[in-house]
Amino acid sequence: MKPILPGAPWLVAHRSMLGVNRPYPLTLNGRDYVLWQNTSGEISALSNICPHMQAPLSKGWICQERNTIACPFHALEFDGLGRLFRDGELSRTSFIEPLKLIVDGDFIWTYGGFQPQLPVPDLHQKVANDYDFLGVTAQKSIQSDFLSCLKINYDHNHQNGTHREFFKCKSCRSEFIEKEGIYAKVSQVVEKDDYTPEEIAENPMLGAIPDVMNNFLEYVFPSTQFFCLQSPEVQTYQGHILYPETENRTQTFILLYAKFSDPSLKPVMKDSLLHAASIVVQQDTQCLESLYPRQTPKIHLPNEDIMVYAEALYNNWEGAPVI
Ligand code: FES
Ligand SMILES: [Fe+2]
């Protein structure tokens, strides 16, 4: 496939997603890789193709003592540099190409083997320093191209359709507060209808959402959208992460952070917040997977300048500065 946005930094995992001594498969821009984290927190990444007879290494297992991955087919073992471990020693040469990772705290980034065109953003680390991490949710491979998945995150009109039952929006006004290259901050004022007591009983976090919400979103093209919902009880920083798996598959997951006015609310609301975030992605996925091929829109809505901005960054990628 023709790589999508080559040289962009992709956030491919949060450390908590990897587990320990367990192969973690990853597809990025049409190539398959395997990652694993050892007990000391070191992370290795290789092409997933065994150089013997091309079995997928991610279906194998980790040999803890040597920090190698064993192939599921004939059990050959390779270390994190792709060297073969046989008869008690490592080969001098590498048989498998490692994938270069940039591990920034709990964030695992990669340029997928391309020359970096943009720096790894620092926003994620800032959020992690300021907020409690609640967990990862909504991890899924969406059967849709990257641009469509990107655009829905910059689309401030679809809440009335895609998320109508969940958000009960009556109106939404969004505008840029900052727009600086690949970074944008958008304020969003949403008026919504009341939830019924039954709806709140089923999903307690709904009770914390005020009738008029003053939210904001921070975007770092192309990997990240942080949606920040503010209510008297809780302020959430919900990071929607995307990366292209293939031409028509896109991986997403949410990193959920929050600050509670009263720390005792955290255990009560944590699961509900994670669940709510996963519903939102489920609804987006259903929408994205049902779209017909893209055509030039014949109708326009308010707030679309935000989506137009993202699409322009995507279409003008060739002009991105080399760092
Ligand atoms: S295919 Fe991997 S060891 Fe043979
Ligand atoms: Fe959505």
Based on the model shown, name its key terms.
single chain, 323 residues, alpha+beta, Rieske Iron-sulfur Protein, Naphthalene 1,2-dioxygenase Alpha Subunit, Chain A, domain 1, 2 domains, seven-stranded antiparallel β-sheet, five-stranded antiparallel β-sheet, 7 helices, 18 strands, 20% helix, 37% strand, globular, binds FE2/S2 (inorganic) cluster, binds fe (ii) ion
Which secondary structure elements does this structure contain, and how are they paired or packed?
Blueprint: E1 10-14, H1 15-18, E2 24-28, E3 31-37, E4 43-47, E5 61-63, E6 68-70, E7 77-78, E8 83-86, E9 89-94, E10 102-104, E11 107-110, H2 123-130, E12 132-142, H3 146-153, H4 164-167, E13 169-180, E14 183-192, H5 197-202, E15 212-220, E16 224-230, E17 234-246, E18 249-260, H6 265-289, H7 305-315
Antiparallel strand pairs: 1-11, 2-3, 3-4, 5-6, 6-7, 7-8, 8-9, 10-11, 12-18, 13-14, 14-15, 15-16, 16-17, 17-18
Helix pairs in contact: 3-7
Bound molecules: FE2/S2 (inorganic) cluster and fe (ii) ion.
FE2/S2 (inorganic) cluster is lined by residues 50, 52-53, 55, 71, 73-74, 76.
> What class would the helix/strand composition place it in?
alpha+beta
The top-level CATH class of the largest domain is: Alpha Beta
- Small molecules in complex: FE2/S2 (inorganic) cluster, fe (ii) ion
Strand content: 35-45%
Largest sheet, strands/sense/barrel: 7 strands, antiparallel
Number of H/I helices: 7
CATH topology of the largest domain: Naphthalene 1,2-dioxygenase Alpha Subunit, Chain A, domain 1
Give the number of domains.
2
What is the molecular shape? globular
Helix content: 10-25%
